């Protein structure tokens, strides 16, 4: 039995933030807004005016910086019992909004102000302890009711974060294809949807065609058609592909990569980009295809090896990464059984082929 999940509504474009009130009014006439401090300082009045004009009573809460149980307790004490929670900022702020909404069974609105991952469309969120160690990946009962992506805001965000979003999204073609071929389980606990597989393939094509032009738009600080297509690919297409298509070895490797520093400190999208090369080596794809993907990485600024991700690895580090990776549930979403020696051999090949100091 397949399961396909998605946000109820997705809105993207320049100036979308000024339409937030109109979009919120479709859901409720009151809302709690959890705002990243930088976003509140820059756009808080635009958000407030948009809500006032649409007749939405919106309470703004300033996010404390980490999505911890204590922070959710603090926000909950200020929020009362909201029917709708909207969160504007990066991944931690959006996760905090999801956690607050989940506590009260409220509708969720996500407003990503960077395009570094595809998490805004998903029903997952991550809780951390005070030392930023992951406690758990939690799940909402349903996907966000609304996702709003203002590409003027995205175009002014740090370029490195935009590149990380490309890294997180470019390999969904490989993971969704592998999970589907293996008869694996997607994030909803159902079978892989073929529609999600096709979205992963379309996402890959858009990034290959438009990523360089979109990065030029980031340099200019102004959204254009290429940037719009890439943001739609990295946030919407990639998000639907991973949740309803399923994950495989590349995301399994983040469990290993986050176990050892300094690789643990690399952006998630950079970790996944590197791991894509390991996965497609394990798939036995032609060397020319792997090198073509690595060449694309060089063009956009993604790492092709552990050395480029953070530092040259020792054998002990590679052993730790491989052993931790083998504990991830997604490792089974592959057309054949993968062993730790298989994984180490693929990692060694990638390092030998692409490492640059």
How would you describe the overall organization of this protein?
The chain is 54% helix and 12% strand. It has 357 residues and is α/β, with parallel strands linked by helices. It folds into two domains: 10-155, Rossmann fold (3-Layer(aba) Sandwich); 161-354, Dehydroquinate synthase-like, alpha domain (Up-down Bundle), CATH 1.20.1090.10. Strand 6 and strand 7 (134-139) form a beta hairpin. The radius of gyration is 20 Å and the shape is globular.
Overall tally of structural domains: 2
- What structural class should be given to the helix and strand makeup? alpha/beta
Rg on CA atoms, Å? 20 Å
Mean pLDDT over the residues: 93
| Uncertain spans | none
Query: Which architecture of the largest domain per CATH?
Result: Up-down Bundle
Oligomer: single chain
Lateral arrangement of strands in the main beta sheet: 1-8-5-4-2-3
CATH-assigned fold name of the largest domain: Dehydroquinate synthase-like, alpha domain
In DSSP terms, counting alpha (H) and pi (I) runs of 4 or more, how many helices?
15
Could you write a compact summary of the structure shown?
By secondary structure, this protein is an alpha/beta fold. Helix content is 54%, strand content 12%. Helix 7 runs parallel beside helix 9.
What attributes does this structure have?
2 domains; two-stranded antiparallel sheet; Dehydroquinate synthase-like, alpha domain; 15 helices; single chain; alpha/beta; 357 residues; Rossmann fold
Topology:
Elements: E1 10-13, H1 20-25, E2 30-35, H2 37-53, E3 57-62, H3 69-79, E4 84-89, H4 91-104, E5 107-112, E6 124-128, E7 134-139, E8 146-150, H5 151-155, H6 159-170, H7 172-182, H8 194-220, H9 225-245, H10 249-257, H11 268-282, H12 287-300, H13 306-309, H14 315-325, H15 340-354
Parallel strand pairs: 1-8, 2-3, 2-4, 4-5, 5-8
Antiparallel strand pairs: 6-7
Helix pairs in contact: 3-4, 6-8, 6-9, 6-11, 7-8, 7-9, 8-9, 10-11, 10-14, 11-12, 11-15, 14-15
